[in-house]
């Protein structure tokens, strides 16, 4: 059996699948390893009730193949997890990618061999969970930004007699909550999608909230056939428009320049916010040009959403608890279907644990806010060790055995979020330091895979064997990412963008704000012969 490849890829979500496709197209030998029993990454694991995308499906889809985008029919404006997973399965089959993919196999380590090594020095040696070793000229991490689950170590958790499920590791066969008293810990995007459905199903639902979150109704609906036809008729234009959008989405919508809140009177502000409320979901972030950069503009929008919460939630105390006091979109905003309305149900209780935290899990429930709660099942909607968790779970070692985990111990250090000095021929798709999670992930993934593919071509053409960022380029890049972020509201609250959700994680703002600037910089760097990277032969 072949064990030595040009390229080895970890993960087969959107990024891993496209990477395999691209390498195959370029005639490179490639093998991808996937921990799950199926492809799909995020969309394989996150099967919790209500899981769906919050970028419109017509845009949250691959643009690299014209026939694929014409033939696939989305059924909803925002597709649910089963449909997105079916799409990714279709992509894997349509392009015959499975023969280069090994499922149920986790990449445990990837070591760059300075010397020795089975195929000689200067290659990556990869160990997988079956105890096998492989080698590759290039190692590509396609493990995703939100795939390593954050499971808090609540005291007494093993004693709980009911079932505990993390939203990011939901059982394939689903979970039946009928007749059960269910507790949900967390109120991020996953919880906000799951709670209305869990409330329908369970006998009683208790939501334990540490921090309230902003959410705007998604107004999800069956996808209008005419709209689908219209977008398909100009798909190239739509994808190109997305590459020019700050967040990599919205390219299928009319291109209007939003006003600045400060240039409008109160009535005008409310009119604009009302229009964007009707557009729904993440599109609301685009209401004002200065929404993310001017705290005053942001407060106008934040208060508008708080008003909506108060209008929907009957009990003023519950409405107040559900109203965030941080800036809108400082934590990732959510798109929902009936989230706030759910708290008007008799069988749903909101518990504020902002002061007490979860004091402990007991055999029959949990203790929080000086109360005991009896529960039959517990849902942990506690999120992820974002952006670095899944990469750091692989023991990656570069030149001289240097460990990536150690190098990143005070926060991730990358150049463009794509590579790190002393780790030759390592590429990270949508790594920390790139726009990734602040964008339509598919726009960012395609840009990264194409960057890597072009770079490999360039290396062949110029006879280079190795590429890695210079130390000064990555130092400057980390400073640049932080400087850009400081011009926005992002660093002003606790969020997973900052690593604040995981105890002990260094507090560093990880993504690059703004897709077009980032993409233009990448293009300029390539035009200058991959400035900031060092090649060797
Ligand atoms: O995770 P989160 P998520 N005790 O980190 C709370 C994407 N996504 O899975 O805010 C008690 O947002 C935590 O509280 P706090 C999207 O990018 C997209 O919901 O840290 N509570 C928070 O309320 C999203 O942002 C979709 O104080 C604890 C919650 O758990 C990202 O994934 C759908 C706790 C975690 O929220 C992550 O979303 C789903 C503790 N020890 C996800 N630890 C789409 O719509 C954490 N919490 C496409």
Structural account:
- The strands form 5 sheets. Strands 1, 2, 3, 4, 5, 6, 17 and 18 form an 8-stranded mixed beta sheet that branches.
- This protein has helices at 14-25, 42-45, 66-71, 81-94, 189-201, 225-232, 235-243, 266-279, 295-312, 316-321, 339-342, 389-392, 404-407, 441-462, 471-486, 515-527, and strands at residues 4-10, 30-33, 101-102, 107-113, 123-128, 133-141, 163-166, 181-185, 204-209, 215-217, 334-336, 348-352, 358-362, 365-368, 371-374, 377-380, 395-397, 426-428, 466-469, 533-536.
- The longest helix has 22 residues, at 441-462.
- The chain has 16 helices and 20 strands.
- Helix 5 links the parallel strand 8 (181-185) and strand 9.
- The mean pLDDT is 97.
- It has 537 residues and is of the alpha/beta class.
- The two termini are 29 Å apart.
- Bound molecules: 3-acetylpyridine adenine dinucleotide.
Shape: globular
**Count of helices?**
16
Structural class based on helices, strands and sheet pairing: alpha/beta
Strand content: 15-25%
Query: First CA to last CA: what distance?
Result: 29 Å
Number of strand elements: 20
> What percentage of residues falls in helices of 4 or more residues?
25-40%
Average pLDDT, rounded to a whole number, is 97
For the biggest sheet, the summary is:
8 strands, mixed
Question: Which compounds are bound in this model?
Answer: 3-acetylpyridine adenine dinucleotide
**Poorly predicted tracts of residues:** none
Task: Annotate the secondary structure layout.
Layout: E1 4-10, H1 14-25, E2 30-33, H2 42-45, H3 66-71, H4 81-94, E3 101-102, E4 107-113, E5 123-128, E6 133-141, E7 163-166, E8 181-185, H5 189-201, E9 204-209, E10 215-217, H6 225-232, H7 235-243, H8 266-279, H9 295-312, H10 316-321, E11 334-336, H11 339-342, E12 348-352, E13 358-362, E14 365-368, E15 371-374, E16 377-380, H12 389-392, E17 395-397, H13 404-407, E18 426-428, H14 441-462, E19 466-469, H15 471-486, H16 515-527, E20 533-536
Parallel strand pairs: 1-2, 1-6, 2-3, 4-17, 6-18, 7-16, 8-9, 8-16, 9-12, 10-11
Antiparallel strand pairs: 4-5, 5-6, 13-14, 14-15, 19-20
The structure holds 3-acetylpyridine adenine dinucleotide (N01).
3-acetylpyridine adenine dinucleotide (N01) is lined by residues 53-54, 146, 152, 167, 185-191, 193, 210-211, 332, 335, 357-358, 381-384, 437, 496, 501.
């Amino acid at each position: 059996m072949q064990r030595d490849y040009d390229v080895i890829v970890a993960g087969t979500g959107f990024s891993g699948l496209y990477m395999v496709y691209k390498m195959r197209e370029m005639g490179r030998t490639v093998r991808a390893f996937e921990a799950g029993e199926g492809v799909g990454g995020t969309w394989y694991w996150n099967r919790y009730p209500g899981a769906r995308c919050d970028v419109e499906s017509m845009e949250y889809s691959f643009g690299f193949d014209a026939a694929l985008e014409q033939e696939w029919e989305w059924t909803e404006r925002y597709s649910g997890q089963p449909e997105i997973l079916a799409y990714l399965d279709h992509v894997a089959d349509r392009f015959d990618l499975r023969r280069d993919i090994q499922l149920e196999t986790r990449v445990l380590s990837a070591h760059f061999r300075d010397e020795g090594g089975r195929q000689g020095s200067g290659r990556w040696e990869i160990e997988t969970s079956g105890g096998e070793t492989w080698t590759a000229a290039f190692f590509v991490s396609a493990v995703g930004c939100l795939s390593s689950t954050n499971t808090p170590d609540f005291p007494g958790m093993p004693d709980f007699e009911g079932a505990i499920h993390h939203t990011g590791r939901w059982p394939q066969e689903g979970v039946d909550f009928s007749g059960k008293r269910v507790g949900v810990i967390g109120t991020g995007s996953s919880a906000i999608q799951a709670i209305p459905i869990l409330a329908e199903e369970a006998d009683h639902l208790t939501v334990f909230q540490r921090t309230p979150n902003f959410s705007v109704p998604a107004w999800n609906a069956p996808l209008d056939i005419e709209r689908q036809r219209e977008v398909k008729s100009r798909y190239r234009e739509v994808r190109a428009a997305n590459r020019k959008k700050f967040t990599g989405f919205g390219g299928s919508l009319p291109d209007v320049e939003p006003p600045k809140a400060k240039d409008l009177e109160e009535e005008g502000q409310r009119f604009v916010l009302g229009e964007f409320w009707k557009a729904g979901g993440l599109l609301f972030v685009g209401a004002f040009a200065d929404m993310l950069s001017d705290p005053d503009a942001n407060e106008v929008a934040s208060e508008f959403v708080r008003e909506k919460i108060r209008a929907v939630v009957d009990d003023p105390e519950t409405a107040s608890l559900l109203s965030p006091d941080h800036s809108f979109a400082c934590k990732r905003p959510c798109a929902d279907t009936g989230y706030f309305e759910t708290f008007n149900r008799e069988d749903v209780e909101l518990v504020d644990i902002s002061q007490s935290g979860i004091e402990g899990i007991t055999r029959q429930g949990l203790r929080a806010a000086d109360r005991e709660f009896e529960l039959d099942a517990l849902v942990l909607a506690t999120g992820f060790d974002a952006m670095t968790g899944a990469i750091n779970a692989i023991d990656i070692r570069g030149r001289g055995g240097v460990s990536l985990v150690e190098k990143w111990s005070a926060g991730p250090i990358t150049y463009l979020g794509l590579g790190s000095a002393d780790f030759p021929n390592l590429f990270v798709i949508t790594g920390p330091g790139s726009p990734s999670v602040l964008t339509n992930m598919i726009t960012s993934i395609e840009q990264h895979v194409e960057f890597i593919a072009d770079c490999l071509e360039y290396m062949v053409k110029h006879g280079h064997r190795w590429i890695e960022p210079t130390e000064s380029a990555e130092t400057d890049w980390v400073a640049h990412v932080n400087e850009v972020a400081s011009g926005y509201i992002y660093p002003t609250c606790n969020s997973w963008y900052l690593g604040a959700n995981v105890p002990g994680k260094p507090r560093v703002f990880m993504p690059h704000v703004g897709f077009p600037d980032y993409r233009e910089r990448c293009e300029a760097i390539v035009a200058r012969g991959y400035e900031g990277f060092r090649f060797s032969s």
